[in-house]
Structure prediction request, 403 residues.
Amino acid sequence: MDFGSHSTLNEHLQKTGIPSGSQDKVSVIDSGPEVAEPQLAVDPVATSNLSAKAPEFYPSGYNQNFNQNVTDSSFDDGYLTLAEYVQDFLNHLTEQPGCFEMEIEQFAETLNGWVIADEALQELVELIYQQATSVPNFSYMGARLCNYLSHHLTISPQSGNFRQLLLQRCRTEYENRDEATKGDETTRKQFHAFVLFLAELYLNLEIKGSKGQVTRAEILQEGLRELLNALFSNPVDSNLICAVKLLKLTGSVLEDAWKEKGKNDMEEIIQRIENVVLDANCSRDVKHMLLKLVELRSSNWGRVHGTTPHAEATPENDPNYFMNEPTFYTSDGIPFTAADPDYQEKYQELLEREDLFPYYEENGADLSGPGELYFDEIDDEMDPEIEEAYEKFCLESEHNRKQ
Prediction:
């Protein structure tokens, strides 16, 4: 930061009667015989340590460029361990997600010079997994990080490369799904964080085929199907809220993938949701969330069908190309779609906003304060229009079940 040029400083000294080049002591300038005022003693001016060449100031905790602070000698001198370096970068990325594009390449290069043993790769996977499943709002960024490292880390030991070890780590949680959905509040909350991270991995983890084609990890597709089954098999509020979030995030992509294989897995999931609405002992608000999800799916997840088949449409040949994607709104009420260059960042912000489910925390507890139960503050009567739609839905679902 420029605190002022040397010439400006001299002008200031001349105006105040202080000759330039003498900042330690100040003597009163002799104004000649015409001035009869007695001279006054002046305290010496303290020498300033400020410099016009001082580096820019950044607030505490701000890291302009994380990787500039890490050199090869830092590792050699024992200043950082692998865990410390990786954790510092993950925290930095959590606080400043916009730095991802600028700093991820250097981060991967540093790891390639350091992660040369099987144990180090295992430690790296665990650190990223823990950050993505324990730090709020890091699941999306964690999935992007995993995708980049899966393509740019050079180490590939016999135990498996980065992506294989990551999927093995996820499988550990996946196999405990039935116990986790029946567990206590803390256990379920941890499990729900894992479910949403796996959903982000499914959307962001790219698998490159032998011919250069890019696909999603099919094993994650089937995994999400079983996770939904586990959540609906134990239909307490927090499990159902997690299922709603999962389907809002991945529903359209999952259904398209299943349809390509000739499967109607989404129809089965929707039927399970209808059964939960009719039979499960969950709260009225959660049932309303489930009904809104069924409504969203019935509108093809909010996508508008264009005149050109969706599989063949491109921005060049279909003027309604981006109308095939849903419209969302930022916290300021500004609409955006996939055509927006900042779509991923804005969509992630939308998912992270607390008002998606305003009455519930992650574990399904109400957010009104201690001793203030939400359900005591509202009228038990439904809006007439909602009540009519709800009764119609129940009658139609019951009729379909009897057939």
User: Anything to note?
Assistant: The CA atoms of residues 150 and 219 lie 16 Å apart.
